[in-house]
Amino acid sequence: MRSITCLLPALLLTMAWAGGFAQTIRRIDGSGIEAPALDARVRQLMADAKVTGLCLTIFNDNRPVFAKAYGYAKAATMEPMTPSTHLYGLSLSKAVFAHLVMQLADRKIIDLDKPLVEYLPRPLMDYTFPGKLSNFKDLEGDERYKKITARMCLDHTTGFPNFRWFEPDKKLRIKFEPGSRVSYSGEGMYLLQMVIQEMTGENLESLARRYIFGPCGMETSSYVYQAGYEKAYAVGHDKTGDSTFFPRRPLANAAGSLTTTMDEFNRFYTMLINGKRLSGKAFNEMTGSQIRIRSIQQFGPLSWRDSTLNDGIQLGYGLGFGVLQSPYGRAYFKEGNDQGWGHYTIAYPDKKIAVVILTNSDNGESIFKYLLEAAIGDVYTPWYWENYIPWDMR
Q: Best exposed site among 1, 16, 53, 68 by fewest CB in 10 Å?
């Protein structure tokens, strides 16, 4: 039987499109914004920054009270964005995967602190994943790989680069002592996915169907491309509004192959923020700080330079989510970015207020700072660290 908590957003989103969303949206500081005023602000920001398409959902009392799609799924044909348009999930794939892993940890299927190589019947160097895209032979001679745990993969402290193909020699290496600092890594997710698949004898798509998609009624969401997506999908758009791409991934990868819709992702997010399908301990570990982040920015040269810039919000990483502290309690966030796409989510659990922003435009991230301020009064998201430079500051 599907969870009522997961199915609730479907009804609420239908109400939103029928004009039945909350007239006053509560912000984290106790103030409010009227739905028509927010709607006008969204439209103005999109016009000013030339954002092609956007989906916005706001949660009060941990349920969606405003949900609306704007602009175009495909600018070239003026196809409108809708709640059922299929979208590239980008690194929101990692958020779904993290929840899945925490469910496995709750069931004692995996120990977050046991070295991952101890789960493998053969040496790590013997494995290739996924579909020969990645192998682990480059790690030969560096015994530090034997220290890497599921926790390190989820809080991005493996020492791996984001992806090996960004390295000058295209090789996988451990760049610092595992567990010592945060450096965002899709390669860490690849390793953890491979180990879990070996342990369980199931692939990621099957596991996600059982632990996430099925319980939440996410009938079309998948880590693998489905032919049905061709009926209604969005493409990414560059800064000039030209189309980029919609991925058709034949292989599931936890780092970024998820395809979903606004409606279906909101079902997952409602489950997430209500702490469903996880023990309280697992939920708090996932959304609480495991390690502090002191880098100036998340990516690029400034990711290796430390400062006190974000000490005021105690920026850190949980298990699959970034975390921060505000005067209104902790918050946990997850983003996604690729050519032509940009997504952001953040939840303030003490206030039971959250937001999901999904865009198919390179210009989308340039309105995140102003949109978060208007929608929920969030002035704590580390927009400079995220490189969410506003359109009028560039």
A: 1
What digits encode the pLDDT tens for the residues 314-329? 999 999 999 999 999 9
Indicate the residue type of 65.
Answer: V
Calpha distance 90→204 (Å, rounded): 16
Distance CA 106, CA 109 (A): 8
Q: How many CB atoms lie within 10 A of CB 365?
A: 25
Is the domain 4-393 a CATH 3.40.50.2300 member? no
In residues, how long is the chain? Answer: 394
> Is 143 or 1 the better-scoring residue by pLDDT?
143
**pTM surpassing 0.85?**
yes
Q: What are the CA-CA distances from residue 378 to residues 63, 203, 351, 375, 381 (Å)?
A: 18, 38, 12, 8, 7
CA 333, CA 322: separation in Å to the nearest integer? Answer: 5
Q: Give the integer Cα–Cα distance in Å for 31 and 192.
A: 42
**Domain-by-domain residue ranges, the chain?**
4-393
- Residues facing 57 on adjacent strands: 67, 356
